[in-house]
């Protein structure tokens, strides 16, 4: 795996040093895209790192600019910038050849955008509680939030997973340029969408909406009745690994 034993490799891109871990292997390259304010040390990322190592599969996990071990200011981050980060790292470690994107939550939005730009190189896409257009349906921005955006450059929301979520002016201003649920999504590669029906952060019916909008025919949705937003239990991870294994 690229990088030292004590830390990830880094790529200079757009004013930040992007932390990543790459392991060469057989294609397609599998890329894990974490969720909002998450990083490449999460449960799903580590489980997939272990599985791809045993399978001899080419593998990339990463931190978006301003997140995890990458440099930069989180408040400068946006869906568009983070999508550019992902594509720059893929081009750096795997300049040609097929790619399978695995995106969790907001990482699912980024995966869909990156998949559109990869075009024929996209060999498959897996969404785990994928949350495209979250800023439109998931954030109700009131006057107090707008005041905080003007004064501080961000507002906050409580999080069930640690520190409060911060939503910046850069994110809010950029997001409308990357909305996907107002029309068809031009992906023809196989798509698999996993979603817990006990998810209180992203409604599971969103995965059905995504599936209906993708123009390709090879699209499947798997609903896990007692699954939460994270889908990080052993059985959930096994389902994710089996899903990716079927694609590659």
CATH C-level name: Alpha Beta
Order of helices and strands: EEEEHEHEHEHHEEHEHEH
CATH architecture: 3-Layer(aba) Sandwich
Q: Note poorly predicted spans.
A: none
CATH fourth-tier homologous superfamily: Alpha/Beta hydrolase fold, catalytic domain
Protein structure class: alpha/beta
Cα(first) to Cα(last) distance is: 20 Å
Radius of gyration: 17 Å
Strand tally, please?
A: 11
Blueprint of the fold:
Layout: E1 3-4, E2 7-13, E3 16-23, E4 26-33, H1 43-55, E5 57-62, H2 79-93, E6 99-104, H3 106-118, E7 122-128, H4 134-137, H5 143-152, E8 154-157, E9 165-168, H6 169-174, E10 191-196, H7 205-213, E11 219-224, H8 234-247
Parallel strand pairs: 4-5, 4-6, 6-7, 7-10, 10-11
Antiparallel strand pairs: 1-2, 2-3, 3-5, 8-9
Describe the structure.
This protein has a single domain, classed as Alpha/Beta hydrolase fold, catalytic domain (Rossmann fold, 3-Layer(aba) Sandwich). It starts with a strand and ends with a helix. The longest helix has 15 residues. It is globular and about 50 Å long. The mean pLDDT is 96. Helices cover 34% and strands 26% of the residues. The strands form 2 sheets. A 9-stranded mixed sheet has the order 1-2-3-5-4-6-7-10-11, sandwiched between helices. Strands 8-9 form a two-stranded antiparallel ribbon. It is of the alpha/beta class and 248 residues long.
């Amino acid at each position: 795996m690229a990088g030292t034993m004590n830390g990830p490799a880094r790529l200079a891109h757009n004013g930040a040093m992007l932390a990543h871990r790459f392991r060469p292997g057989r294609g397609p390259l599998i890329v894990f895209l974490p969720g909002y304010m998450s990083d490449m040390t999460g449960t799903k990322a580590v489980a997939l790192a272990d599985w791809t190592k045993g399978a001899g599969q080419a593998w990339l996990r990463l931190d978006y600019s301003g997140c995890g071990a990458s440099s930069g200011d989180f408040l400068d981050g946006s869906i568009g910038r983070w999508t550019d980060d992902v594509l720059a790292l893929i081009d750096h470690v795997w300049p040609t050849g097929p790619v399978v994107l695995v995106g969790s939550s907001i990482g699912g939005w980024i995966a869909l955008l990156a998949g559109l730009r990869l075009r024929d190189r996209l060999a498959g896409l897996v969404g785990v509680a994928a949350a495209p257009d979250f800023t439109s349906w998931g954030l109700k921005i009131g006057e107090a939030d707008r005041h905080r955006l003007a004064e501080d450059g961000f507002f906050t929301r409580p999080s069930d997973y640690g520190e409060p979520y911060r939503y910046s002016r850069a994110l809010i201003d950029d997001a409308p340029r990357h909305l996907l649920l107002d029309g068809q999504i031009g992906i023809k590669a196989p798509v698999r969408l996993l979603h817990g029906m006990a998810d209180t952060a992203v409604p599971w019916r969103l995965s059905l909406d995504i599936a209906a909008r993708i123009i390709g025919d090879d699209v499947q949705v798997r609903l896990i009745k007692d699954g939460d937003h994270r889908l990080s239990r052993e059985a959930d991870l096994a389902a994710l690994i089996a899903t990716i294994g079927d694609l590659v």
